[in-house]
TrEMBL record:
Residues 42-301 form the G-protein coupled receptors family 1 profile domain. The chain crosses the membrane at residues 31-51, 63-84, 104-124, 144-163, 193-217, 237-262, 282-304. Keywords: Adaptive immunity, Disulfide bond, G-protein coupled receptor, Glycoprotein, Immunity, Membrane, Receptor, Transducer, Transmembrane, Transmembrane helix. It is a multi-pass membrane protein. Belongs to the G-protein coupled receptor 1 family. GO terms for cellular component: plasma membrane. InterPro entries: GPCR_Rhodpsn (IPR000276), GPCR_Rhodpsn_7TM (IPR017452). This is Lysophosphatidic acid receptor 6a. It is found in: Membrane. One of its GO terms (molecular function) is lysophosphatidic acid receptor activity. One of its GO terms (biological process) is angiogenesis.
Length: 356
């Protein structure tokens, strides 16, 4: 994919096919700028809600808080990427380049795994509500989140930090970041990395999301479930599943499917300039779609977290309750004052009558 830092030399690429992906530089700089602004605002609002406004938390919100952290870590690196894609020069040093690459994969595969955790948690809550009570605890959710972070970081940090740099030749005295590895590096290292991240980070989460969604839908179709939960609750869960799966598939399937073909092209398993041209053209577009998951994740927070919506409802109900009580107090005070005034006037009148 698009890794690491290198000082440009005059060596030409070994590939004889003409590269047609120069459009990626304005595309990346535009899309990443939009994602930075929108992703920063929406995720800061989300973390404010989770930290300050949301008093009641459960295992679902635990997964979502970790998803917010993953998104924000990546969003903070986007200005550096935008600067690079505009200037085509990386002046921030090799460490920041590799860190930015690592955070990209941390965000992408961390997002997929945390979304999968939310899907599995919903599956357990709806399909096995009684048997899953001992499993669905905040303590177990924290343990799962730690395991996800360990898994994601163990794959993303070596990808960004432990691989060799490559050379590229477009302008002198420029430092390149996020550019392609050589075919030799693809054959020796990256093909194995792709197999690992595609299996653990994409294929297994995709299958789990689809399986959990199908099982929840089948459960909702049972008459006893509908009578117990009501049609409105059923519609809400259906909407959550549709939004969840749509975002997962839209953001992650194009990039990960194209990454497989990209790896096959770079390792020379797939040959032909036409194939390489198609793969190189699709790759930047798929990457931009994958990066946009930072903007779409807050939609998942809203539709998935029944706790958040119930929290807002409880707040409004409490406010309405206090408003009604306050008006009752005012009315009672006004009534009592009026009664006091009338009794005072009455006493005075009777006093005068008695004195006459």
């Amino acid at each position: 994919p698009h890794y690491t830092t290198t000082h440009v030399t005059n060596s030409a690429a070994n590939n004889s096919c003409a590269k047609n992906d120069l459009f990626k530089y304005p595309l990346y700089s535009t899309v990443f700028s939009i994602v930075f602004v929108v992703g920063l605002i929406t995720n800061v609002v989300a973390i404010y809600i989770f930290s300050c406004s949301l008093k009641m938390r459960n295992e679902t919100t635990t997964y979502m808080i970790n998803l917010v952290v993953s998104d924000l870590l990546f969003v903070f690196t986007l200005p550096l990427r935008v600067f690079y894609f505009i200037n085509r020069n990386w002046p921030f040093g090799r460490t920041f380049c590799k860190l930015s690459v690592s955070l990209f994969y941390t965000n992408m595969y961390g997002s997929m795994l945390f979304l999968t955790c939310i899907s599995v948690d919903r599956f357990l809550a709806i399909v096995h509500p009684f048997r899953s009570r001992t499993l669905r605890t905040k303590r177990n959710a924290k343990i799962v989140c730690i395991a996800v972070w360990v898994l994601v970081l163990s794959g993303s940090i070596p990808t960004g930090f432990l691989l060799e740099t490559t050379s590229n030749s477009t302008k002198e005295n420029a430092t390149f970041c996020f550019e392609n590895f050589s075919s030799k590096q693809w054959k020796s290292h990256l093909s194995k990395v792709v197999i690992f991240i595609e299996t653990v980070g994409f294929l297994i989460p995709l299958l789990l999301n689809v399986f959990c969604s199908i099982m929840v839908l089948q459960t909702l179709r049972r008459p006893q479930t509908i009578s117990r939960g009501g049609n409105m609750n059923k519609k809400k869960i259906l909407r959550m599943i549709i939004v969840h799966l749509s975002i997962f598939c839209f953001c992650f399937i194009p990039y990960n499917v194209n990454l497989v073909f990209y790896a096959l092209v770079r390792t020379k398993i797939l040959g032909g300039c036409d194939v390489e041209s198609v793969v190189r053209t699709i790759y930047p577009i798929a990457l931009c779609i994958a990066v946009s998951n930072c903007c779409f994740d807050p939609i998942v927070y809203y539709f998935t977290s029944e706790t958040i919506q119930n929290s807002f409802k409880r707040k409004s109900q409490v406010n309405n309750y206090y408003d009604s009580k306050f008006s009752e107090v005012l009315q009672s005070e006004a009534t009592s004052n009026l009664q006091c005034s009338l009794s005072h006037i009455k006493a005075k009148v009777f006093h005068r009558e008695s004195s006459v």
